[in-house]
Amino acid sequence: MNYIKKSKLFLSLSFVCLVATIQAQEFKFGAKAGMNISSISFKDSDYSTKPVIGVQVGAIANYSFNDKIAVQPEVLFLTGGNKWRYENGTDGRIKTSYISIPVLVQYNIIEGLYAEAGPQYNFLLSIKQSIGDSDFDDIKELYKSGTFGFAVGVGYDLGFLLPGLKAGARYTRDLSKMNDQEVGAIDLKASMIQIGVSYTFTK
Fold it and tell me: Which of 38, 41, 121, 169 reaches 20 to 30 Å from 146, CA-CA?
C-alpha cells in the first residue's frame, strides 16, 4: 500500500468515525498533556539508535455510544526524535515536531479500565539534525509532509479523584517512511511510547 493510498484510508476511516458520532449518546471535550519516549528506526544496520524524551499537548473529543464503546479523535502537538551512532563512531541527534491526529476506538474492559486502537496521521512541522558538536540543521526538505501510522493503548478513569480525569499509556508507530528522498540511513520510521493525562468536560 503506497503513501497516497494510506492517506486516503486514514481520511476514510476518520470520516466514518466522525459520521458515526452523530449517533453518540454522550459528547465530551477537553485537553491532554504528557511525555513521549520517542525513537526513529533506521533501516541501515550500520546505525544504532537510542530514544529521546519529548512532550505532548493537545485537544481531545470523546463520543460515547454506550457503556462499552467510544470514539476519541485528538489533535496533538508532539516532539520527538532520536540519538544515533554510525559504525565509525560518529554521533548525531534528530529533533522532530508534529501535529498528530489520531482517531481511536475505545473499549471499556472493566469499570474504569479501557483499551484503545486506531489510525493516526502525523503532519511534520520540523525536523533538524546535529552531527557531532555541530549546531542543528534543518533537513525538512528531505522528508515527507506527513506520515500515516497506528496507535494502541490502555487507560484508566481517575474519576474517583476528579470527574473527567484519565491517565493512559499508548504506543504509536509509522506505517509509511518519513523520508521523501534518499538519506544515509535509507528508510526512517518513527515510534513513540506516550504517557499522559487528560481532562474532559461533558457537553
Answer: 169
